[in-house]
């Protein structure tokens, strides 16, 4: 009942009308997020990449083509960081929009539709992921890991895709949750294991044959692998195509579920 | 009497309107017509179906059955266009408490696609109107309940709506804040804005509404002007009698039989008796003549509360 027009100009108009809201939200929170998105990667890179990595032999045969553990770690770590940022922005903040601050209720009293709200919010989440990954990429640039400039740029695009995939999937989940209790489960049984076992910290071959294939089925691995191949200039283009297709497919699926989820939740 | 144009165009037209939530039917087939410039009320207790009706009229809740036209349009296909011409003041504040007063108005106005410069100008006017100009830069969470309600009303006016929907506008406010709000709404009405109000306060309905429907359990049980409803469904005066609880071991029911013939009818409430008659003082005199000694006596005019009690056998506010 809430769809006014299916034209692209209608969508752009609906999303554009929320711009001032999101700008205001960002102005209020950017200091905190800017510091964390600058400091957190630096700590990770120094502690794990440099200090812990100092104990690890830089053997390209064992590290998927990386000449140092730092070079192995960074591309995957940024992809994992993209996932965490996206999940962080689509769990409690989205539940607040739906249920606690009820910003969505006030938006839906205006000509905006649920579709506009989903796209506006996920647009902001994508911006948050893109800006935090950009900071991360710039912070680690002086370490001399990036083999080619175009590889680094494409890797950055892959990291943003990780953000859109996880952002839209978790948004779809949040739109269906009545209470935040499910988030604890999501973090403990979803995000945390993915963070540790999707190949960001060690080559998934170390998991054994079966373990490696399980890891390849997880969404984060596709982002980690794509980001790493591109940054290290070790691209297997058929794998790259699979990785990109999976991330794009998950984004499309998540978007669809988000649209149906919010419509069912808000339009009663 | 209110000056309503009976041939004027219909802002809201509902026929056999229904709203179901699973097995529960909140609105069970109501007919409503609201004309331009009118102040129209839905009066009823909590759970009567007022808010469900209001959400359908606000074009945010799909109709389960019957017909509904708002501003001549169908909410199923023209929701955004309808909402663009409505002002909505929801039952619970949906203000953004993290933002300041001015930004709440500005951002909300932008959702309507109104140019930024126009929204700024309009927001300043509205803050003046609801007497919050000095609070423009204050965070909403620091405002009192009455101020928040006034801000919500200001926000609902940002798009210069043709139709203003107010769901329980003064619930939870202290008397002073309520009167201030009523004054604002009365001024709006005078400028020609059509108001639709839900309330479970009979004094609010009497103050603000030209015409109202009394709702109970999802249906309309009476319709008319506040005065008309009182004349039709109640007597001119009401005598309230309260007897001591331990008085001869008798309940209020027992006393009711002794005074039943003194008025047109008698209602028994847990704590008092209501005797309906044209002359309340005469009832009091006769009660004393019969040797009955109530601990408290009050003679008053009939209100919409009495209408509701008569129609449903229950009070509005439990």
Automatic annotation (TrEMBL), chain A:
Keywords: Antibiotic resistance, Cell membrane, Membrane, Transmembrane, Transmembrane helix, Transport. The chain crosses the membrane at residues 34-56, 68-87, 117-143, 149-173, 185-204, 237-259. It holds the Pfam family ABC2_membrane. PROSITE patterns: ABC_TM2. It comes from the Bacteria. The keyword Transmembrane helix applies. GO terms for molecular function: ABC-type transporter activity. It is found in: Cell membrane; Membrane. InterPro entries: ABC2_TM, ABC2_TM_bact-type, ABC_2_transport, Nod_factor_ABC_transporter. Residues 32-265 form the ABC transmembrane type-2 domain. It is a multi-pass membrane protein. One of its GO terms (biological process) is response to antibiotic. GO terms for cellular component: ATP-binding cassette (ABC) transporter complex. Belongs to the ABC-2 integral membrane protein family. This is Transport permease protein. It comes from Nocardioides agariphilus.
């Amino acid at each position: 009942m809430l769809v006014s027009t299916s034209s692209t100009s209608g969508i752009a108009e609906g999303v554009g009308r929320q711009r001032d809201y999101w700008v205001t939200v960002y102005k209020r929170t950017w200091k905190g997020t800017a510091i964390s998105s600058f400091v957190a990667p630096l700590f990770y890179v120094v502690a794990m990449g440099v200090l812990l990595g100092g104990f690890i032999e830089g053997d390209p045969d064992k590290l998927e083509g990386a000449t140092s553990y730092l070079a192995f770690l960074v591309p995957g770590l940024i992809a994992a960081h993209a996932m965490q940022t996206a999940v962080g922005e689509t769990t409690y903040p989205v539940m607040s929009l739906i249920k606690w601050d009820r910003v969505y209720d006030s938006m839906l009293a205006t000509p905006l539709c649920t579709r506009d709200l989903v796209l506006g919010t996920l647009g902001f989440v994508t911006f948050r992921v893109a800006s935090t990954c950009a900071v991360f990429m710039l912070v680690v640039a002086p370490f001399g890991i990036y083999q080619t400039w175009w590889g680094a740029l494409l890797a950055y695009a892959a990291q943003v895709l990780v953000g859109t995939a996880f952002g839209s999937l978790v948004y779809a989940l949040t739109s269906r949750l009545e209470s935040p209790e499910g988030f604890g489960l999501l973090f403990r049984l979803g995000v945390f294991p993915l963070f540790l076992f999707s190949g960001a910290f060690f080559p998934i071959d170390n998991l054994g044959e079966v373990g490696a294939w399980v890891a390849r089925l997880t969404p984060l691995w596709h982002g980690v692998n794509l980001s790493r191949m591109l940054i290290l200039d070790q691209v297997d283009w058929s794998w790259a195509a699979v990785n990109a297709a999976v991330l794009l497919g998950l984004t499309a699926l998540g978007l669809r579920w988000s649209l149906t989820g919010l419509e069912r939740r808000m339009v009663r | 009497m209110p000056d309503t144009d009976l041939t004027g165009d219909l802002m809201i037209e509902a026929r056999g309107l229904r709203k179901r939530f699973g097995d529960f039917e909140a609105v069970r087939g109501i007919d409503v017509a609201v004309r331009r410039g009118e102040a129209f009320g839905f009066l009823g207790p909590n759970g009567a179906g007022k808010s469900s009706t209001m959400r359908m009229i606000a074009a945010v809740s799909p109709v389960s059955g019957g017909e509904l036209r708002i501003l001549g349009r169908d909410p199923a296909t023209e929701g955004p266009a309808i909402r663009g011409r409505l002002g909505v003041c929801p039952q619970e504040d949906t203000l953004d408490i993290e933002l300041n007063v001015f930004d709440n108005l500005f951002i909300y106005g932008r959702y309507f696609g109104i140019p930024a410069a126009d929204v700024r100008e309009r927001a300043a006017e509205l803050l003046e109107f609801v007497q919050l100009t000095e609070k423009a830069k204050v965070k909403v969470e620091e405002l009192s309940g009455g101020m928040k309600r006034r801000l919500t009303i200001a926000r609902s006016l940002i798009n210069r709506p043709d139709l203003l929907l107010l769901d329980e506008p003064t619930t939870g406010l202290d008397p002073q804040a309520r009167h201030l709000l009523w004054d604002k709404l009365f001024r709006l009405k005078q400028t020609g804005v059509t108001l639709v109000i839900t309330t479970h306060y009979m004094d609010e309905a009497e103050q603000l509404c030209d015409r109202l429907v009394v709702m109970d359990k999802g249906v309309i049980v009476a319709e008319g002007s506040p005065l008309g409803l009182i004349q039709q469904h109640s007597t001119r005066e009401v005598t309230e009698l309260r007897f001591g609880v331990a008085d001869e071991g008798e309940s209020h029911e027992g006393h009711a039989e002794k005074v039943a013939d003194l008025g047109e009818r008698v209602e028994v409430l847990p704590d008092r008796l209501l005797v309906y008659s044209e002359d309340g003082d005469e009832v009091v005199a006769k009660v004393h003549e019969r040797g009955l000694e109530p601990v408290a006596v009050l003679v008053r005019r009939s209100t919409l509360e009495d209408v509701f009690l008569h129609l449903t056998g229950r009070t509005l506010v439990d």
